[in-house]
Every structure is written in structure tokens, then in C-alpha cells.
Design brief:
The chain has two domains: about 1-225, P-loop containing nucleotide triphosphate hydrolases (Rossmann fold), CATH 3.40.50.300; about 235-310, Nucleic acid-binding proteins (OB fold (Dihydrolipoamide Acetyltransferase, E2P)), CATH 2.40.50.140. It is about 25% helix and about 35% strand. The chain has helices at about 40-50, 90-95, 95-100, 105-120, 135-145, 165-180, 190-200, 215-220, 225-230, and strands spanning about 1-10, 15-25, 30-35, 55-60, 65, 75-80, 150-155, 185-190, 200-205, 210-215, 235-240, 245-250, 255-270, 275-280, 285-290, 300-305, 310. The protein starts with a strand and ends with a strand.
Length: about 325
């Protein structure tokens, strides 16, 4: 188990990570999700030993990692830009960490083949990395991190530079592979879909602190505060005179001939559904999606499922 207790770190004299507490169980996949500048990549580098602590402690299986250099932590790290060596072949890149471990040549070749098989690049040992597509380079970088069979895998924006279709496919493949190998993993991302698709638990970071940490389902159903709700893309936040600040989750709203009257302010189309912005007769401005085709300016009626209302004032 990895455990962070009261961890702080600074870059250039400026504190970037503030008093973080986080535990990651063996075999668990945890995502660090947050906007740019929230400290998530710095925290990943703190765990790897690439950025020194200014406070707190990082432990693995109860052992303090202070003073343990990065190459002796037995952690695999995949950098955001992949950091592949252009002068090395695919096999040379994947075998780099194994070479640093002093793995004999006969074992090294076998381990490289195994790692490439894990990521679907069997037989590509002799290819030049500069000849590969973005998705293939991503897989090579992942194979390099996996080849030494680390006890902890650290991924910094692993699919962030890829196009949407390829990113979605690789997220699914990566999640399956990590779970099949029961590999303890921390992944940094700014993309909610990526975090929710990969991780069993998501820690949302804000200005160097963890604002919320829960399963994707619980974060979506019960965001702890208005900032978290808005960061997750939930805009249906209203001030109720009796109950205070309320969130109406978009899936709780539906077109209903017996519901409240509303005017459709705008319509956009996304992945087979229509995204509506409406103003209800009571003056509430809400957004939701529906399979029903409507046009801007039309009159509809909507109902709200009470189970989809979250009290943000609690």
C-alpha cells in the first residue's frame, strides 16, 4: 500500500502541493483529476521521488521512502510526452529500465517481448520509434514503464495528446490491462471521462489540495460542494429559499407532458442526443439531454426526479 501523510512540496520556492493525505491500496487504480495548475503532476513526481518533500511522509508497505532514490523505488513512470529516445528502436526504448536494473541480455530480450505483447505491439522490437503513430508511441511508453514489472505504476496524462476516438479506445484497453494484472496505479489527467473510465477511485485536486475523493459513481451522484459539481460539468445549481444551494443532476430532468412549462433557449447535438438549455416558467435556467428532437424557441414541459436533487449546502 502507498500512503501519503500531510505531504507538501514546492517548486521554485512556491508551494504547489499542500498537506495531502492519500492512501492507495494494493491493486487499486486511483486517478488524480483536476484543472491545469492544480498540482496533480507535481504530486505524481513527489511519489516517484523526482520532486523533494517540504513536509509530510510517503510510505510503501509502511516503509518511509525518504532518501530512497527514484530508480530504487521500483515504481514505473510514464511521462506525459512519453519521453521516448528517438535514437533507440522500440525494443531499445522498452528495455531501457531493464538495463538500468542490470537484467542480463538473454532475460532482457524475453521481458521486452512480453511487455510489447501486453500492449499489442508484438514483433515490433526493431521498429524505429520515429516511424510510429501517436497511439503506437503511447503503447511503447507504457510497455517501457511495465517491462520492469513495477510494484506501482505512475501515469501522467497517458493519452492526453491523442485524438478523441483513439483516446477512448486506449482508455478501455488500458483499464482492462491494469485490472487483469492487478497493478497498483496512479494516473494523472485533466479529463473527467478518462479518470472515470480508468479509476476505481478519483481524487479531485484544486490549488494543490484534494477537494474530493470517492468512486466515480459517488462523485457524480453526491458531489461534496459547488466547485466540485461545476468542475464535473454540472451547471444546474440553484438557490432555493428554503433548502439553500441545490444541484439538479441533468439526468433527473426529462420532457413530460404533465410537467412544468419551459422555453427551449438553445439546442445542440452530441453523440445521438440533443442537449437543451431551457428556462422554466418559474425562472430556473437548466440544461439536460434528451433523445427527443426539439427546436430552439419551442415550448415544452419538463419534470424533475427528486432523487436527482443534491443538497450542496449540507
Amino acid at each position: 500500500m502507498l500512503e501519503l501523510r500531510n505531504v507538501s512540496a514546492a517548486l521554485g520556492g512556491v508551494t504547489i502541493v499542500h498537506e495531502i493525505d492519500l492512501a492507495v491500496a494494493d491493486g487499486e487504480i486511483v486517478a488524480l483529476l483536476g484543472p491545469s495548475g492544480s498540482g496533480k503532476s507535481t504530486l505524481l513526481r513527489v511519489i516517484a521521488g523526482l520532486v523533494p518533500l517540504t513536509g509530510g511522509v510517503v510510505t510503501w508497505a509502511g516503509k518511509d521512502l525518504a532518501g530512497v532514490p527514484p530508480h530504487l523505488r521500483d515504481f514505473g513512470f510514464m511521462f506525459q510526452d512519453y519521453a521516448l529516445f528517438p535514437h533507440r528502436s522500440v525494443g531499445g526504448n522498452v528495455g531501457f529500465g531493464l538495463e538500468m536494473q542490470g537484467v542480463p541480455d538473454d532475460q532482457l530480450a524475453s521481458k521486452v517481448r512480453t511487455a510489447l505483447d501486453w500492449v499489442g505491439l508484438s514483433g515490433m522490437e526493431d521498429r524505429a520509434v520515429t516511424s510510429l503513430s501517436g497511439g503506437e508511441q503511447q503503447r511503447v511508453a507504457l510497455a517501457r514503464a511495465l517491462a520492469p514489472e513495477p510494484r506501482l505504476l505512475l501515469l501522467d496524462e497517458p493519452v492526453g495528446s491523442l485524438d478523441r476516438e483513439l483516446r477512448t479506445r486506449l482508455i478501455d484497453e488500458l483499464a482492462d490491462m491494469l485490472r487483469e494484472r492487478d497493478l497498483t496505479t496512479i494516473v494523472v489527467t485533466h479529463d473527467q471521462g478518462e479518470a472515470f473510465g480508468l479509476a476505481g477511485r478519483v481524487a479531485i485536486m484544486r490549488t494543490g489540495r484534494i477537494a474530493a475523493c470517492a468512486t466515480p459513481d459517488n462523485l457524480w451522484r453526491e458531489p461534496p460542494d459547488e466547485w466540485t459539481a461545476r468542475f464535473l460539468g454540472m451547471t444546474n445549481i440553484i438557490d432555493d429559499p428554503e433548502r439553500g444551494k441545490l444541484l439538479i443532476r441533468p439526468e433527473a430532468i426529462s420532457i413530460d407532458p404533465h410537467g412544468e412549462a419551459a422555453t427551449v433557449d438553445s439546442v445542440s447535438f452530441d453523440e445521438g442526443r440533443y442537449r437543451l438549455a431551457i428556462t422554466t416558467a418559474s425562472g430556473r435556467r437548466l440544461t439536460f439531454t434528451t433523445a427527443t428532437r426539439v427546436t430552439a424557441g419551442s415550448k415544452i414541459r419538463v419534470s424533475i426526479d427528486p432523487s436527482g436533487i443534491v443538497d450542496l449546502s449540507r
